[in-house]
Amino acid sequence: MFGLMVRFTCKDEAAAAAFDALVARTGEQIRAHEPETVIYTVHRVDGRPLERIFYELYRDADAFAFHEAQDYVRAFLDERDRYLSTVEVDRLEFVSGKGVDHER
């Protein structure tokens, strides 16, 4: 498994709304075209209305590379910065868990 946790902070409320719309469009494409993307979730942070946390889990590094190469992901990466003040990325190494077949 290959995972990421990404924290985005939007510039303001209008930027947050536009970012959420971009995320929704991109997520539709990910669901439709990436069977090896196991989890791709986006969360608002309680009490911090400008923050979003993404949790991404891919079957393996090849699945992540496939994800990153998609036109809709490239478009997301190109557009997102106009809405954001900060981006923090943590690459995750799987240790253990429930609900994910980590043997694949």
Automatic annotation (TrEMBL):
Would the keyword Secreted turn up in this protein's UniProt record?
no
List the molecular function annotations (GO) for this entry.
monooxygenase activity
Gene3D superfamilies reported in the protein's UniProt record: 3.30.70.100
Q: Which residues form the ABM domain?
A: 2-94
The record's keywords, sorted A to Z, are: Monooxygenase, Oxidoreductase
Q: Does the keyword Calcium apply?
A: no
Give the E.C. number(s): 1.-.-.-
Name assigned to this protein: Quinol monooxygenase
